Amino acid sequence: MMSDEDRAEREPWRVSIAEFKGFLGHVQRSTSCPVCPHRGDWTIHVDAEAPNFGLDPNLLVYVIPGFSPDNLDKAKYRQGHFAMECPNCGTVQFVSCLSVARHLGLFPEQKTDG
Ligand SMILES: [Zn+2]
């Protein structure tokens, strides 16, 4: 479990697999692939270069070309996405970093549920 100190030190778009799966469960995202018959776990894209929190690697952040993850402010941050891939057919789906970060309370001033 991440301490408040760890959370305070990291960039808000650094999200672990466990946190991402928690978000997916919270929003009741379907595990069914919209393209093929696969139903179940998806392959989550992780960033091998990023610092890990606990034992869990951090997710890779995809940004619109021209934006650097190191320079993301709150407006640009909306351009960032996490990705998950169907292990059967390779379909990739993107999830907004902002949606996940809000769910995790990384932007408590923007939290709407609670
Ligand atoms: Zn598929």
Report on this structure.
The structure is a single chain. With 114 residues, the chain is of the alpha+beta class. It has one domain. It has a three-stranded antiparallel beta sheet. A hairpin with a 6-residue loop joins strand 2 and strand 3. The longest helix has 10 residues. It is globular. The chain starts with a helix and ends in a 10-residue tail after the last helix. The mean pLDDT is 79. Bound molecules: zinc ion. Zinc ion (ZN) binds next to loops.
Would you report the number of β strands? 3
Bound molecules: zinc ion
Strand content: 5-15%
- Alpha-beta content class: alpha+beta
Order of helices and strands: HHEHEEH
Share of residues in helices = 10-25%
Shape: globular
What is the gyration radius calculated from CA atoms? 14 Å
Q: Termini separation (Å)?
A: 21 Å
Main sheet specs: 3 strands, antiparallel
> Biggest sheet: strands side by side, in what order?
1-2-3
Number of domains: 1
